[in-house]
Amino acid sequence: MADKLDLEPVPSAKPLASTFSPIQEVLFITLVCMGQFMTQTNIGIVLSPLNIVAHSFGITEPGISSWFLAGYSLAVGTFILVSGRCGDLFGYRRMFIIGFCWLALWSLVAGLSVYSNYILFIFARVLQGIGGALLLPNGLALLGATYAPGKRKNMIFAIFGATAPNSALLGTVFGAIFAQLAWWPWIYWSQTLVCIGCAVLASVVIPSIHHDASFDSSYVGLLKALDALGGACGICGLVLVNIAWNQAPIVGWSEPYVYVLLIIGIILILAFFYFEFRVAEHPLIPFHALSRDVSFVLGCVACGWGSFGIWIYYFWQFQENLRHTTSLLASAEFVPVGPMGIIACCATGYLMGHLRPGTIMMLSMSAFTLGNVLVAIAPVHQTYWALTFVCLLVIPWGMDMSFPAATLMLSNAVERKHQGIAASLVTTVVNYSISLSLGFAGTVEVHVNNGGNTPGDVLKGYRGALYVAIGLGALGMVLSASYTFKGYRAESRSKDDESEESGE
């Protein structure tokens, strides 16, 4: 049908959700959404107090402070696939609870790094990302395995998606409050307390999800089931490529270790695909699920969220460094993202049952692109209520149309036992794109800002980075538009063929 998603849902057993009482269902959805909440909060909490934290460590090089965000997103995007496979093998509930505990531990260390140096802080931020990598795919997998395809599942996924902008918003607000009015380490220590509470409640409320995940329990059998060799190549390759791109703006591409890391990373990524296609008995990625529709969605998600990663970092830099807005005021100005995100997610939950995925993605990519254009052309001394406010109304539509649609499509496309991997693919692309795109943008910034010695030069660098974001968003628009056009043309040809057959 022209007005339905192009993927047919995979049949599953009687949904577990039918056994929930209303209270248990509310608690279940709340706790799963808390996994998304804590993961995305870790993006917001570093943005508003970025300059305060950097100043406490004596950091003056912007390329170093960008690692506060990029390091976290790198770890989330890199380890999600392995975390999803662990959930498929050992249970989504178990890995979900471990994710809360892991995030609690390294949030504690991130706060304690105030007594050490910024290297420990970045290290703790990276390891926090592993906690997010455990929470996101296994939380989505819990939803995917609990609810049968249909309108109810669509709306639950939309609610999960709506958690993202609001958690990022609350993260910026509380990050600013703790950093400006108290002491910034309490941002992370408070996270520790929340994560511990969520882990305890999850162990009581969330049921075990049983599925066919039999494997040889020997050491070798476990390594094969985890696709350890392929996973090691993939993780190391993604990490090295990302480090190279994010270090280049700091030390320059002339440093031999930068391009050596890039070359080795690319080789390892190629080795990963070789192992997945030719060697692995249990491939880490279910390539049978990567239909034309799924591959298209992942490509658009990479472009859109790469664009978003640049936008969210340089939006805050623009507000605080050029407009000299305080952390608290900037957080207050960021408030429209929350309610607009809820509206966008609810609208997307409805539209996913009525529009082609190409149309939804085209609207999403348009929002990402327009949001970056509005920031890139905004004058420094212009009132907030002009382009900045409009930008904050537009950007949530990009986030909350692409993420729920992509996760729902993949959830419906694969079997119940592969729900963790399905969720992992989307979240891997989202978070890795954010981290890698910051490296692209940072490279452009340092090459066009003339050293950043004057406000005008700083502005020129920021706008150069935002132009990269606009380019990524525009590429996503082209991909989604071309795919939508092909879909309508194929449908038209199908109707013509049916008419000719009926005429005969």
From TrEMBL:
Annotated InterPro entries: MFS, MFS_dom, MFS_trans_sf
Domain Major facilitator superfamily (MFS) profile: 28-488
GO terms for cellular component: membrane
Keywords of this entry: Membrane, Transmembrane, Transmembrane helix
Its membrane topology: Multi-pass membrane protein
Subcellular location: Membrane
TM regions (residue ranges): 64-83, 95-116, 122-143, 155-180, 186-209, 221-245, 257-275, 296-316, 328-352, 359-378, 384-410, 422-444, 464-485
GO MF terms held by the record: transmembrane transporter activity
Protein name, per record: Major facilitator superfamily (MFS) profile domain-containing protein
